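Appendix B. Raw example, untouched.
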Amino acid sequence: MTPEDINLLLTLAEIAGSAIQRTRYYEQMEQRLGQLSALRAIDVTISSSMDLRVISRSCSSRCSTAQGGGGRHFALQPHLQTLRFAKGAACAPPAIAI
């Protein structure tokens, strides 16, 4: 192998590594965009409705969508007029009160 061959292989390896890294960044960006879109939809629902059942359904479905399934659950407590995060790890404030 000549020094030119080694330089060519190094260049090709750098190009391949860069392409892999760009793909990872793109996937992360798409995931974050999905999360932001879900949070925006939840914000619109909370701003437009005083019905905790509607908010609960929206939060649960949007958080599941943003996280690729996984079932995020919110517990409605009508006597306290709160919506508590009951299960999962994302998209959740401790409670939403009206």
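End of appendix B.
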